[in-house]
Amino acid sequence: MSLESPAAVEAAYRTYAGELYGVAARGLHDRALAEEAVQETFLRAWRYRTTYDDSLGSLRTWLFAILRNVVIDTQRRRNIHVLTAEEPRDAPTTEDIDAAILGWQVEEALRRLSEDHRHVLIEVRFRGRTLADVAGELGVPVGTVKSRIHYALRALRLSLEEQGVQL
Questions:
Q1: Which letter does DSSP use for residue 56 in this model?
Q2: What percent of the chain has pLDDT over 70?
Q3: Contact assessment for residue 108 and residue 158, using Cβ atoms and an 8 Å cutoff
Q4: How far is CA 162 from the centre of its chain?
Q5: For residue 156, what are the CA distances in angstroms to 8, 93, 108, 150, 152?
Q6: Helix 31-47 crosses helix 6-28 at what angle (to 10 degrees)?
Q7: CA 39 – CA 43 distance, rounded (Å)
Q8: Separation of CA 49 from chain center
Q9: For residue 65, which of 34, 96, 97 has the smallest C-alpha distance?
Q10: Which residue ranges form the domains of the chain, and what is each CATH number?
Q11: Range 138-142 contact pairs with CB under 8 angstroms and sequence separation of 24 or more
């Protein structure tokens, strides 16, 4: 998919706007700003459509890169207002925003896993439970839990790569 025409932009908007909005809303904690960020993302994508190279990554990945910059710009504009307020607060850094976006991408990748794979992965890798505990809870052999973790990690990696995450 590319952005060669207004119809192509409209199709990309229908395909990706919801997901972009979700990331922007979580990053900005403001629905109106998130909507503006998505609109600005597609405006920039249209303006710079000739720079998009599908051999370097998917359109989705390119749009998320643009969104990242839009969110950072929005945060910076917002922080100017915060600095002039009575109670200034620390502004999020680019690293904070990158970490937040990575967290959302991992969240999305976990959502794409089957329930069985997601459950064992979360229980063993994130909650630190033993294979035997999880196998006992599920009533399956330990080997089944190992296998599910293996395939869950493989699917998680693939999903993250599709989102443009460099592993």
A1: T
A2: 90
A3: no
A4: 11
A5: 29, 27, 9, 10, 6
A6: 140
A7: 6
A8: 22
A9: 97
A10: 1-92 (1.10.1740.10), 113-167 (1.10.10.10)
A11: none
pLDDT per position as a tens digit, 31-48: 999 999 999 999 999 998
pLDDT tens-place string over residues 88-134: 555 566 777 777 777 778 888 888 899 999 999 989 988 889 999 99
- pLDDT for the residue 75: 83
Instruction: Please check the confidence at residue 152 and state whether its pLDDT lies above 90.
Output: yes
One-letter amino acid identity for 120?
V
d(C-alpha 52, C-alpha 10), whole Å: 16
Query: Within the chain, where are the H helices?
Result: 6-28, 31-47, 59-84, 94-112, 115-121, 131-138, 142-162
For residue 51, give both structure tokens. 């720079």
